[in-house]
Write a structure and sequence with these properties.
Blueprint: H1 11-31, H2 34-45, H3 48-65, H4 67-77, H5 79-97, H6 103-131, H7 137-189, H8 202-208, H9 212-241, H10 246-269, H11 271-274, H12 276-295, H13 301-330, H14 335-363, H15 368-386
Amino acid sequence: MSSDSEMFDSGRAWAVAVGAMIAVGISFGVLYTFGAFVSSMATEFNAGLGLTSLMFGITMFLFFGTGAISGRWCDRYGPRPLLAIGGSLFVGGLVAASFTTAIWQSYVVYGLGLGFGGGLYCSPLFSTVATFFVKYRALAQGVAATGSGIGTLLLVPFAKSLIQTEGWRGAFRVLAVISAVCLVVATFLVRRSPVQTQANSKNHVGLVTKTPEFKILCGSSALMSTALMAAFAFVIRFAEEDGISSNRAALLISAIGGSSILGRLLLTSFAGRLGAVRLLQLSFAAQPVAYLVWMFANGKYWLLMIFALLLGVTYGGYVALMGAVAAHYFGMIGIGSVMGYIFLFSGVGSLIGPPLAGFLTDMASTRFVPLGVIFIMSLMGALILARGSRDPVNFEADEPKNNVVGLTERQPIVFTLEPA
C-alpha cells in the first residue's frame, strides 16, 4: 500500500477532487432550484412569498452555519462518515418535503435535511481536497469548486421542466433519486486526508476573531449573501411576472451558475498580479451594478441575462477568493475554523434575504421596493469590504506555528462554500 506522502497529487488524490465536485455540484444545484419551486408551493400552501421563502432562508442558514462545526468533525472522523450521514439527510429531506401538507413542515424537513445535511459534508470536502495536493492544489480546488456552477447550470432548468410535468412534489422525488446516486458515487471516491493538523489553532483563531479584518470579512459576507440569496429565490418569479416563459426564466439561474465558473477561473488567474484582496473588493463592487441592471430591466430579457451573467462572474469571484483572502490575512493556522465562522455570517445573511424580499414583495405595490433593498444590502457589503487592508495581519511572534504537511503559513488556499 502506498504511503501517505505518495498520495499527494496522485490519481487517488484526483479521485477525491472529482468526488467532492460531484457532491458539491448536486448539493448546490438542488438547493438553488428553490426559485423554480417557490411559486407553486406558495400557491398550494396559501402561504405568500414571504413565509414560503423563509423555507429557503432557514435551509441556507443551516447549510452555511454547519460549516463552523463540521470541519472539526471531519478532522476527527474523516469525510466519508459525514458524507454518508449528511447525504442521507439531504435525500431524506427532499423525499419528506414532497409529502408535507403545511409550510411549517417544510421548514423542518427541508431545512434540516438539505441545510444541516448538506452542511455536514460540503465545507469539509473542500478542506479535504486541499490537503491531498501540494503542486496542483489550486487546480484541484478549482475542480471541486466548479461543481456548484455545473450543478446550478444543469439542475435549475431541469427542475422547472419537472415541475411542469410532474408537479413540485414529483420533482422533489426525482431530484432525491438523482441526489442519492450522485452522493453514493461521491462517497466511494472520497477518503480521509493523508495529513493531520498537529498545531493547536485555538489561540490563533481567538486572535483572528478580534481583528478588524475578520469583522470586515464577516460583515460584508453577511450583506452580500442577503442580496444574493434573495436574487436566487426570486429572479425566476419576477421574470415570469414580466411575461417571460418559465423555461427562459429558469435559464437566468443557469446563467448565474455557468458564469460563476468563469468568474472562478478568470479572477483567480489574476490573483497573483493584482492580489486576492483587491480582486475580492472588485467583485463586491460590481455586484450592486448587476442589481441595478435587474431593477431597470423592466422585462427585457437581454438585460436580465446581462444581470445574471455579471452577478454570476462576480459571485464566482467571491467563492473562489474568500479563502485566499482569509489565508492572506490570517495564515493557514486554523483556517478551516476561520472560514467556518465567516460562512456562518453568510448563513445569517442567507436566512434574512429571501424572506425579507418575499415579505416586501407581498406588501409593496411595486417591485422596486424589494429590488431596492437588495441593491442597498449589496452596496453596503461592497463599501464595508472596501475598508479592508491589503496587508497580512501581524500576530505575536510566539504564536503557535503551523506544521501541516504541504502547507506553509501564508500560502494561499481556496476554501469554497457557496453562497454556485
